[in-house]
Amino acid sequence: MSDWAWLESVRYFLAVVLWIFLPAAITYWLLIHPLTAFWRRLGTTATFVTMGVVLAAVGWIAWQFREPVLEHRYPTRGVFIVLGLLLYALAAVIERKCRKHLKLRILVGVPEISDQGPGTLLTEGIYAHTRNPRYLDLMIGIGGLSLIINYHGMYWLFLATCAGLYLVVLLEERELRQRFGTPYEEYCRTVPRLLPRSWAFLRT
Description:
Blueprint: H1 5-32, H2 36-42, H3 44-64, H4 66-70, H5 78-99, H6 104-107, H7 110-113, H8 133-149, H9 152-180, H10 182-190
Helix pairs in contact: 1-3, 1-8, 1-9, 5-8, 8-9
């Protein structure tokens, strides 16, 4: 038996989790940001219940089609695992810096669907280097996991997720302009949308 045989189950488990979770997560934000006025009229509780039903449906559909997507599996590669772990570690560092500023209510989109004021515009810490560190860390982390899993379908899922996240960024920026106006416009002029200008953001 191959020394890597035990990783087969781990790779498949990770692939299934990503295949179910990522489409649901992208769907959530693609529905939240363009329809904030509707969700605010509906109310926070009703919104979360509605979105829970939608995300459960998306996850169920993904589960039904998992095998055709995950059937083409490349062999386990040690170098891919090492590179994937390094990328995931970088994503974890960025995530930790984000969590210093992101409370749970922000992570789940309460400011977008609540009528209790615009919330807080984040411009400090890592947010002084990139406007969207959370999406940056997701792209890097998912890229790392894709290398560890090393399935053909996971690489396509990674590319689709990056495209979906970038679309979410654009929709979120439009919504933030409506919420914060001039202060957000000034912030956009001084801070890059996604990629920091230097590695200094890791020392923030």
